[in-house]
Specification:
This is MBL fold metallo-hydrolase. The protein has five helices and 19 strands. The chain is of the alpha/beta class and about 260 residues long. It has a seven-stranded mixed beta sheet with strand order 7-6-5-3-2-1-19, covered by helices on one side.
Length: about 260
């Protein structure tokens, strides 16, 4: 399996010869409701759009997961699997094949990859978006992805999981509270799933931010802190810290720190 982090919450997963693009924001700016005075994020340079994509996987319908300018640029013949709200975005942009996954439902990609939807991020008081468990049907290799750090106890029955992608730090706004839950949440899912590796998401290395919200946002914790937390709880899990564009090979057993693999 290969994983390429494309910064923020965007990932390219290569599993069993299938190329899955997860929550892509690759071009143009990111705003919410075109309120760039409130929040605006920009890549230092646009990401190269990956070729030969077999599936686009959307966990949410918000712009930082179902980014309209990026989805407009991608080939609309690529199949899309998405949460109900993500599916509405893709359908509105004219994608030819859009599959909506509700919690507990699954999708089989080309008889090779199973994708199962679980409850994920809470958006407002009533809306709960998706997290995903992906499984290579040939090898049994599994990967879990949730971009805001809200994890369903339903996952416990699928442990152990090989790789977990989730936030590892907290992001907090005054009066609203934690909008990204890392730290204790990441520890909890680590205890449930006992992965061999975890990778942080929802952070950024090649992105600049503007707007009122960015001045109020408070980040708590670090990858170093999380590694210590795992050690304190006797969890032997490797926390990988890729740079945007790094293509990591993961197999069933780690061979070296520079070349992580399972």
């Amino acid at each position: 399996m290969y994983l390429t982090w494309l910064d923020n919450n965007s990932w390219l997963l290569e599993l069993n010869n299938q190329r899955i693009l997860i929550d892509p924001w690759l071009v143009d700016v990111l705003t919410f409701g075109n309120l760039d005075w409130l929040f605006k994020a920009s890549h230092r340079q646009d990401c190269q759009i990956p070729e030969n994509i077999d599936l686009i996987l959307l966990s949410q319908g918000l712009e930082d997961h179902a980014h309209p300018p990026t989805l407009k640029r991608l080939d609309h013949k690529i199949p899309v699997v998405a949460s109900p709200n993500g599916a509405k975005v893709a359908q509105g942009l004219g994608y030819a094949s859009v599959t909506t996954l509700n919690h507990g439902e699954n999708f089989i990609l080309n008889n090779q990859i199973e994708i199962r939807a679980f409850p994920g991020s809470s958006i407002g008081p009533t809306l709960i978006e998706n997290s995903y468990l992906l499984k290579d049907l040939a090898t049994g290799f599994t990967l879990y992805y949730e971009p805001h750090g809200e994890h369903s106890p339903q996952l416990k029955q699928f442990a152990p999981v090989d790789v977990v992608i989730t936030p590892i730090v907290d992001a907090t706004l005054p009066l609203i509270g934690r909008i990204i839950k890392g730290n204790k949440s990441a520890l909890e899912v680590a205890q449930w799933l006992r992965p061999q590796a975890m990778l942080p998401t929802a952070n950024a290395k090649e992105t600049t931010y503007e707007g009122i919200l960015t001045k109020l946002l408070k980040i708590e914790g670090s990858i170093a802190d999380f590694r210590l937390l795992l050690e304190k709880h006797n969890l032997s899990i490797q926390v990988l810290e890729p740079n945007p564009g790094d293509r990591l090979e993961l197999q069933k057993k780690f061979t070296s720190p520079k070349s992580p693999s399972f």
